[in-house]
Amino acid sequence: MKRFKNILVGIDLSQGDRLVSDVLPPPTVEAVERALWLAKVNSAKVTFFFALDISYPAQNLIEEQSDEDDSVLKEARDALNVLAARAASEGIQADTDVRFGKSWLEIIRQVLREEHDLVVVGTRHLSAIRSVLMGSTGIKLLRKCPCPVWITQPRGSNKIKSILVAHDLSPVGDLAMELGCSMAQLHSAQLHVLHSLESPQLESAFQQRVSADNMLLYRSRAQGHIEEQLKNYELTQVPQVHLVIGSPDLAILAHIEKFGIELLAMGTIARVGIAGFITGNTAENLLPSIPCSVLAVKPSDFVSPVTL
């Protein structure tokens, strides 16, 4: 986790019909707490960021009265300054920034401008329906932000007790494993590692008359790949490795529910030639339904469709 030195925290100041509120919603409070904790661990810098998503005429009106004591822009900056002051009191270097525009888009532009290496944001529960647990801002960041993204869900405790790494044995899966193991080490959490072999791969394998011995060999190699990585970490609880056959998205959701997972670490991969999209249906089907916090990382060659 020492890799994170320049953390961007997306702050949601809007409440109901108020553009700026001095009361932070629970998901944003969770994001602030996680970011400050991680900044302490890493001796990292934190930037608190808010985007005002309003029309151009409204922007002009706000900018014209930006020097007045009661302007919305000043209220937003004051709210962020309170967070920065708290960070400073805890020995953390902190900056603030307020921009106009859509939150997810301006967050990514801020990442590109300032080369942030992690984004931490809270997610709004749009509905109690399982298919829309994660808000659109979080999903768009997971799809298009070039740096790792931590989408936090409010929890009763600051300590993370259970972590699941969704590992596809690829280089980006290795990086997700690194992050998941580091988090488990820092929190003394129970670590679960899941690798799923999809049904279409199995059907193809049987069509090629692959023997049961070869399937066992594949499972053995997957187990060995994961265990080799685990050797690099001193975990207080024995990690549990799960090798399953079936749809990865369904397997991930089932394991989150079965083991009470509080944080999912996973890799996302852009389709060739289509920047900002995730390979296959697994992640696209999974993202809106994830009921826990998510720490997602892109491959080193990922290209965001967002530019400055």
From TrEMBL:
Keyword annotations: Cytoplasm
Protein role: Required for resistance to DNA-damaging agents.
Protein name as annotated: Universal stress protein E
Localization terms from the record: Cytoplasm
Gene Ontology cellular-component terms listed: cytoplasm
Protein species of origin: Bythopirellula polymerisocia
InterPro entries (UniProt xref): Universal_stress_UspA, UspA
Protein family according to the UniProt entry: Belongs to the universal stress protein A family.
Pfam families (alphabetical): Usp (PF00582)
Domain UspA: 4-152, 160-298
